[in-house]
Amino acid sequence: MTKTTKTAETAKTTYAALLRGINVGGNRKVPMAELRQVLGGLGHEGVQTYLQSGNAVFTSASGKAPDALARELEAAIEAHFGFRVPCLVVDGAYLRAVADACPFPAAELEGKQLHATFCSEQPAESRFASIDAPVHLPEEYRVGDRVIYLYAPNGLGRSKLAEALAKPAVVKGLDVTTRNWNTVVKLVELTQD
Fold first, then answer.
1. Which pTM value belongs to this model?
2. Cβ-based neighbour number of residue 84 at 10 Å
3. 137 CB contacts (<8 Å, ≥6 apart)?
4. 113-168 residue pLDDT tens
5. How far is CA 41 from the centre of its chain?
6. Would you call 92 helix, strand, or coil by DSSP?
7. Cβ atoms of residues 152 and 159 within 8 Å
8. Residue 96: how many CB atoms within 10 A of its CB?
9. Residues 93 and 70: beta-carbon distance below 8 Å
10. Gyration radius of the chain's alpha carbons
11. What is the DSSP string of 116-155?
């Protein structure tokens, strides 16, 4: 259940902001304390960050759609840090649904073996036509609701299937960002009651 606090005037919903490509190799540095300030400056409450890779949780009573919250955050980050960072904002109910719909036995796997690539919109099936799935076994992927699940038994860094899924034929025109399963589980926890 998504954290929603109701008052006489407004309902607050808890969201996760997933930032792409920050704090990697010393580039595009976004200190988490400053990210919390930026989110607070947008009027969000209960702001928390998780790890240094761009995961934030916050509550909002704005009534804005997650896409609108993401565009607002991107603009605020660019104004504060001087560079654009693609952001996806999802609510706790969506994160719970992603976890519940996982087609792989998550409880039996190490967090580094299972990943979720979150997409700004549902990728069409035709985007995956160039991927010869049997060639990549034992690695596997499945497409869910605006998410691509990836089972990579040797981790993401060694995954040839991850490379194939990151090619322009698959992701061009989409904002995508990947999280390992440990992070997905923690974000579900942080956005629930």
1. 0.90
2. 11
3. none
4. 999 999 999 999 999 999 999 999 999 999 999 999 999 999 998 999 999 999 99
5. 22
6. helix
7. yes
8. 17
9. no
10. 17
11. EEEESSPPPGGGGTT--GGGGTT-EEEE-SSEEEEE-TT-
